[in-house]
Amino acid sequence: MEPIAIVGIDCRFPGAPDTGAYWDLLMRSADGVGKVPGQRWDADEFHSADGAEGHANTVEGGFIGDADAFDNEFFTISPREAAAMDPQQRLLLQCTWRAVEDAGLSPQRLAGTSTGVFVGIMGNEWAQLHLTDYAKVTAQIGSGNGYCMTANRVSYHLDLKGPSLAVDTACSSSLVAVHLAANSLLSGECDTALAGGVNVAVTPALSIFYTQAGLSAPDGRCKPFGAEANGIGRGEGVGVVVLRRLRDALADGQRVYAVIRGTAVNQDGRSNGLTAPNRWAQQDVLAAAYRRAGVDASEVVFTEAHGTGTTLGDMMEVKALGHHHATRPGKPLALGSVKGNIGHTEGAAGIAGLIKVALSLHHRVVPASRHATKENPALQLKDNGLRLLKAPLRLPAAPVLAGLSSFGMGGTNAHAVLESAPPASARPGPRDAGATGGIGCGVFTVSAPGAPALRRNLAAQAAAVASRRVSAQALSWTSNQVKTGHRYRFAVPAHDTAELAARLQEAAADPDLLARLTAAPAGKPRTAFLFTGQGSQYGGMTAGLYRDSALYRGFLDEADAALLPHTGRSVRDLVLDGDEDVHLTRWTQPALFAVEYALGRTLTELGVRPGLLLGHSVGEYAAAVLAGALTLDGAARLIAARGDLMQQLPEGGGMLSVRAPLAEVAPLVADEPLAGVAAVNGPEATVVSGDLGVLARIEADLAGRGLTTRRLTVSHAFHSPLMRPMLERFALIAAEVGGGVPEIPVYSTVRGRVLDGEAMDAAYWIEHIGATVLFQDAAEALLDAGPTHLVEIGPQPVLSGMVRRLGPRAQAAAPAHVLPVRGAEASGRDLADALAELYRGGADPEWAAVYPAEERVPQPLVPYVFSDEHRYWAARRPTAAGPADSTVPTAVPAPSAAPAGEATAPAAAPGVAVLGTRAGTPADPLSDAVQEVIAAVGGYASAEVSAHQRLYEDLGFDSVMIMELKTRLDERVTGLAHITVQDLLPRLKTVADLTGFLHESGATVTATPTAQEGRTA
């Protein structure tokens, strides 16, 4: 069969809360078995050393910690639904998310794809307890149980469209699930498959069954193939792997843990008993897997056995393996079983073994087998070509083959052949490796649903990054692929891992920063580019950025090449060398154009695409190119001619900045043929330009009125009548270049407004030379269009300050000001800072362009850290008298008050009541009633529901809950008789929307709840 790659792993087993801890437990040959937690059942009550009827002969097993913890808010599941869900569903949801992240993918990116979900599951004890209490069966209890829902919930919450099924073949369930997932990939039914298994022991039923069947080990421990083997010990856990066709995984540059070369499944048929193992069927499934993998049995170096530690089971398995390996040349087949460490995890046994084999191949060492010190002599392992691993087995650098068996009690057998991943030299680079990129600095990203989650995950990443000795850019690249997609975002640039760890830790400990980041969820940004004009230039401008960023270098070189035929000298070299000629007009204007074109193109290549453009005077040339109104070559020709022709004009002109409104200045120049208003930059920022003698008179007049003036350092009187002598020659060139209608809205400083279908043609550029720069009008019109971010494109910040001084208009719009270049010391770090700020505001950069190809290599990152604040274990705990005798709900802690400085939920819109008696808002009985009903339907505490929350996205409502909501509203509110559920549906976006609709409908509160239902367990 075509090879299948294991590209992502997550798991949780006894004594091992994550994949790293699982590997550590295996390498230490540690024991994850202990006494049955009191939360499950009273082990002493059900214990009988002699295995009396209705009792188990052991009080021990392999149990995971905190099986009741579930981050329901992350998955937008209401507390009521979470409490009803089988904990196997809850564990699988979180494990799957982390496995997908481990595969180097943001789980949200799988949404809408044909990704398949295949889950092995054997136990359904939660349902046995809850669905048999008929009086308490609810819609949530129904959907919260059932084998199918373990897979279906994953598909639902990740929005996956591929096959979604649960498999029960008893102990072989999860390896059969992997087999089905591989076949689905091979058939082309899906391109990514999530395969796993889960098992949570809620009742002692199987412990009693194993005891009564003579299969249970009194100490609750499996001792596979050991001399002391005396039966099965129960275990539990969850594991998920992400599978892809190997060719696809390699093409996408994904890390490959191991490769599945072949799988096979068969059945005992009518053999020596329904529950008894059959060596003939086992050796047949081994042969089928070897054949499908295209390998000889003698090539397999080690096998992870089913290895339960039962007398008959171990004997049958050894005989089946011996059939293939007894005559193998050289070293015997190494044999082990993870059940010796964690117990028999039943439906999750196959995935526990698969993960062990994959990690062994990945780390190139096979852990020693627990209880292997004394092997069972009756098994005659040596004669069957087998040996137990009493010490870790180091694997060679060459490709290594391994086997994995999982056999079901009902006779469904599965075997898989795995191989070590291809060497790095055999793997192609990322699919986009041809893209040129790099800004000289990585941008590390983390996102989360809220402030506590963001803090938790920032701290986790900081702790993990601190010990890494890899490139910060490679880590950042991986974070960009994986740690994105949630509503609240954080990003920070860093040059190395030490700096990255420090900045992440600082962010995690900064409540003010977290409050700002989570004041409102990131939305779709509307970005405006503002291009600076003449006067912002300086020697060596953007030299640091040119040094650090390959992307910027490429675009500045491109602009230089376009200018060179018209300037006769490299503008790039002049700029980077710090040549003071940059202040000569003939060089200033093409130099500014080159820098602004390169910076604007760099940002667009990075995925920051402007929706609005504004250029101050000569800044409009680069803006016109980005808008598609001019070609690069055309703009280069125009700007070079413009600067040269202006330089040739006679000296004797100047410019005067006046801190006064246009109305006070305009009359002074109205009758001056050699002067004019050059620019209106703000309510009290006017610039006059013209003959020096005229300027002196005007300056004296203004000083006499007490107005502040300042002479500008310029060579000529730009935007004044003194420019007229150059217009004829410039017009000839402009007519040849032409110009079109902008494809992106340009807020013209010639017109003082957006160009509405108007071309930036020869006439425009001719007028542009002498026209007043109407920056204030253009900027105010742009602000009215509602940009979220103003990105200043130029060698130093100029326009951002001018916009802030526009007064109430700018304060009302309150856009974020982003500065990719902050002045003479600017480098790639400034550009990375700008990109980080834009990402935090909702932009989705083209991350491939941020890094050179060699840094776009996936690196392991700590998976998402879920909250364990909320606990759900309202299990009807079984007793010896029967499962319905007692109910022992575990208390669910109410949300704690936020620590000082902790970000809280966004405030409701002005005039919207959150809850009448909360936060000092005016009493609103209807609002109170609506929120109390919503809280009751979802199982929330009343204080957890507020007006801004969305019923579906934030509170986890579904169609069943909406029906109950309508019923409960009818009980609390009058005036709804004429309103149907269909009438409500369009008005259920937020709690406030629903309340407003009920107010409009004339509803009033007439009943008071008899008891507060609150958050339920």
Brief sketch in words of this structure:
With 1017 residues, the chain is of the alpha/beta class. It contains 35 helices and 29 strands.
User: For this entry, what is the oligomeric state of its chains?
Assistant: single chain
Catalogue the unreliable spans.
431-435, 884-921, 1010-1017
Q: How many separate domains make up the residues? A: 5
Q: State the name of the first-level CATH class of the largest domain.
A: Alpha Beta
Q: What topology, given as strand order, has the largest sheet? A: 5-4-6-7-1-8-15-14-9-10-12
Report the C-alpha radius of gyration, rounded: 36 Å
Spell out the CATH superfamily of the largest domain. Thiolase/Chalcone synthase
Cα distance spanning the termini: 48 Å
Question: How would you characterize the overall build of this protein?
Answer:
Keywords: Acyltransferase, Antibiotic biosynthesis, Phosphopantetheine, Phosphoprotein, Transferase. It is a single chain. Helices cover 36% and strands 14% of the residues. It is built from 35 helices and 29 strands. Helix 21 runs parallel beside helix 22 and helix 32 crosses helix 35. It has 1017 residues and is of the alpha/beta class. The chain folds into 5 domains: 423 residues, Thiolase/Chalcone synthase (Peroxisomal Thiolase, Chain A, domain 1), CATH 3.40.47.10; 82 residues, 2-Layer Sandwich (Alpha-Beta Plaits), CATH 3.30.70.3290; 238 residues, Malonyl-Coenzyme A Acyl Carrier Protein, domain 2 (3-Layer(aba) Sandwich), CATH 3.40.366; 63 residues, 2-Layer Sandwich (Alpha-Beta Plaits), CATH 3.30.70.250; 81 residues, Non-ribosomal Peptide Synthetase Peptidyl Carrier Protein, Chain A, CATH 1.10.1200. A hairpin with a 4-residue loop joins strand 24 and strand 25. The chain is elongated and about 115 Å long. It has an 11-stranded mixed beta sheet with strand order 5-4-6-7-1-8-15-14-9-10-12, with helices on both faces. A 4-stranded parallel beta sheet has the order 19-18-26-27, sandwiched between helices. A 4-stranded antiparallel beta sheet has the order 21-22-20-23. The longest helix is centred in the middle third of the chain and has 21 residues.
